[in-house]
Amino acid sequence: MRKLKQFSLALAVVCALSTACGQSGSAETTAASAETTAETTAETASADETKAAVASGEETAAEQTLDTTGLVPVSAEDLKEGTYEISVESSSSMFKITSCTLTVKDGAMTAKMTMGGTGYLYVYMGTGEEAAKTAETDRIPFEENSDGTHSFTVPVKALNEVLPCAAFSKKKEKWYDRELVFEASGIPADALLNSSLKTVQDLSLADGTYTAEVSLSGGSGRASVESPAVIEIKDGKAEATIIWSSS
Description:
The chain is α+β, with helices and mostly antiparallel strands. The chain folds into 3 domains: about 1-50; about 75-190, Sandwich (Immunoglobulin-like), CATH 2.60.40; about 200-245, no CATH class. It has helices at about 1-50, 130, 200-205, and strands at about 80-85, 90, 95-105, 110-115, 120-125, 140, 145, 150-155, 160-170, 175-180, 210, 225, 230-235, 235-240, 245. A 5-stranded antiparallel beta sheet has the order 1-3-4-8-7, with no helix packed on it. A 5-stranded antiparallel beta sheet has the order 2-10-9-5-6. It has a 3-stranded antiparallel beta sheet with strand order 11-13-14, with no helix packed on it. Strand 7 and strand 8 form a beta hairpin. It starts with a helix and ends with a strand.
């Protein structure tokens, strides 16, 4: 009888310990679940804040598609160091660049874009969603010029490529997605390294009139050029007359 009581007591202790362990495991599971829920809630709130900080399509003026068909990308490695005046094509009429100076130095390119307006506080070379997640120190502020215009100096990965650029509106306090193409057409031929381009001197062309086949690619397809084009060579310089037509 005494042995039976001892066995019953031992069994009761085991059951008590099992219950305690079960309660501890349940508490840990509940705590982990609460932590996961809190993290999910925080992530959702952060995603909502990011979304709210970026202008939707309904808030954005109609944009044009930038076409780089037939253009060859040009990187800093392809250019001599120096500064060059280039053109920049923007996908939005609300983000107009009136002039741009490209600087090539130490294997990198930067562009100082002078804007047609003063409505933006920052730009970021990336998407609006990426920009909304950045610290203020990672955003590019405007520089005010002596004539009151604003400029932004941005890094340029490549010329002749469509690059994303987010702009922060001072009035709307939102990021707007833009696209830019920094055009290489304004770069002098002698600034290109390892170029396959040939000069009049390379071709040993005498002064006179020549013709060359030309073609037009990209765009809406409604424009065309007359081929062959007439080229005048004089004093070591070439000038082509391009005749356009549009339907």
